[in-house]
Amino acid sequence: MKHYLEVQFTLSGPLPSESKGEIEELFKQFSEKTQESRDKGEFKITEWKTKETKLDITISSVDSLSPHVAVLRLRKQLSAVIGKKYRVGLRGFAFIKYIIETELEEKPVKEFTLPLVKNLEFFEEKGKSFVKIEIDPEIEEDFVEKGAIERIIRRVGEKISKQHYGAKKEHHQISWYSGEKKHHTEENPTQLMQNANWIQRTNYRNQWILSPTITALAEALKQIMIDYLYEPLGFNQMMIPKLVDWSIWLRSEHAEGIYQGGFEPYFVVQPKSADPEYFEEIADYITITKTIPTEKLAEKVSAPIGGLSYAQCPPFWSWLQGKTLAKESLPIKIFDWSGPTYRYESGSAYGFERVDELHRIETLFIGSPEQAKEIGIQVKDKLRIIFEEVLDLEVREAKVTPWWLQQSAHEDEMDTAEDLVVGTIDYEAYMPYRGSRKESEWLEIQNISIIGQKYPKGFSVKAEGNIELWSGCGGGSFERFLTAFISQKGLDKNNWPEKFMKYIDKLPEPVKFH
Ligand code: SER
Ligand code: ZN
């Protein structure tokens, strides 16, 4: 990797000429030491000059210390020398020019730009691909301190591999199948349920009203999950907040994947002021016109402060953030269905299987790697019993690209070892109305993952005695469970499995409309 940096320090006052010898010596020593500490590469402070309150330094390096790291170190050493003796302070630095040249594993499919980068130039030399990155001179000093330069370089590689990877198919390997089951309908389940007045669309995109009839079925499913999964495995219910501020999605890394194909949140805004006077004009307008002046309203609200819960797990972690868990509290096993979660499903209107407001059950567990692995497998086995035995569904399990790679849009390669422990398994149900088993798309109704250290690390959670912490989670929605169920079994209770019927005393009669 080649670097060329021209940097300018701002000083609190001019440097006296007698300081120059010392500064020269400091730079010389710095270069020599850097050179000595590495067996290869080249590091040089090629030039420096000072005029009034400015100190300009030029650094070039080849396969050696990065000049911006040198600048951070030099800043300390310089302050010590010129501060004490000459009472001149360092106010800060700015890049005049910073160019980084590095070899690429693959060449880009097409050119792109990056924030904090003035120019990106791709070129080839002797059959190899390279990039020349010119950092935006306006980059803030604290971004440089906190690793933005390193992340810019990494991001170039990530974006290129995504350009290639995007064309590849997502990982999907069927690992278990219930076998064929008898189905009782070939109708579209959304239409069946709509015609029976079990569900009704609202005025808002992909949002539904769940009538008493279907709510009774959702309640039955909840009880089944408690009896077959949560109760025997010792999971406790909790109520996780459903409004998520940016700090959480920053730690979970969801923010980095925003609208990149895996994470499509609803945004939340705040009023710029809650003063009645501030909104009086809007209130008057609505009263007189019976319409909402949305454009005007938009001027009175903040930029998004975060969004509505997308999955329960990220906001769950702020509970444990920065804490050290007592050994006796491990493993922690939680489930939550205390409120809906939200996803902005782009495209046209969908059926009940793809909703913007969904009623999800989240299963969460944290413990040592052994505990997490064991619980993950237990949960998977119980889910299989619920779907296959209790609901009598034709389902399969598939190892898929882990959701956190999709949602955070990071391109880490998944380990494809046969015995994969960290990863995601999806449960998929056959939907007869969509066509043959082989050719039609099956419906993903639930996932379960063993995630490893990602969340404990991201939220700085530790355990007593430095036990390594792993976590796992799973999500499923009533909308999906019921769509799959009705799609295979139809509306007639007589065709429903006995084990499920045990959980339904009396199905409320649908309200009829004339
Ligand atoms: N985090 C997983 C998902 O988003 C399970 O909650 O699907
Ligand atoms: Zn989750």
- Average pLDDT: 94
CATH fold node name of the largest domain = BirA Bifunctional Protein, domain 2
Small molecules held by this entry: serine, zinc ion
Secondary structure category = alpha+beta
Strand content: 25-35%
- Give the biggest beta sheet: 8 strands, mixed
- Top-tier CATH class of the largest domain: Alpha Beta
- Strand order in the largest sheet: 7-19-20-21-23-18-15-10
Low-pLDDT runs of 5+ residues are 414-419
The count of helical stretches stands at 15
Oligomer: single chain
Inertia-based shape: elongated
C-alpha Rg, in Å? 30 Å
Number of domains: 2
The helical percent reads 25-40%
- Classified in CATH, the superfamily of the largest domain is Bira Bifunctional Protein, Domain 2
Task: State the separation between the terminal residues, measured CA to CA.
Answer: 75 Å
Give the tally of β-strands.
23
Please state the second-level CATH architecture of the largest domain. Answer: 2-Layer Sandwich
Task: Summarize the entry for a quick read.
With 514 residues, the protein is an alpha+beta fold. The chain contains 15 helices and 23 strands.
Please outline the helices and strands:
Layout: E1 2-11, H1 20-36, E2 42-51, E3 54-62, H2 67-86, E4 90-104, E5 117-125, E6 128-135, H3 141-145, H4 148-165, E7 172-177, H5 189-195, E8 199-201, E9 208-210, H6 212-233, E10 236-237, E11 243-245, H7 246-251, E12 267-268, H8 276-289, H9 294-299, E13 306-308, H10 313-317, E14 324-325, E15 332-336, E16 341-342, E17 357-358, E18 360-367, H11 369-390, E19 395-400, H12 403-408, E20 423-429, E21 443-452, H13 454-458, E22 462-463, E23 470-477, H14 478-489, H15 498-501
Parallel strand pairs: 10-15, 14-22
Antiparallel strand pairs: 1-3, 1-4, 2-3, 4-6, 5-6, 7-19, 8-9, 11-13, 12-13, 15-18, 16-17, 18-23, 19-20, 20-21, 21-23
The structure holds serine (SER) and zinc ion (ZN).
Residues 311, 313, 362, 403, 447, 473-475 line the site of serine (SER).
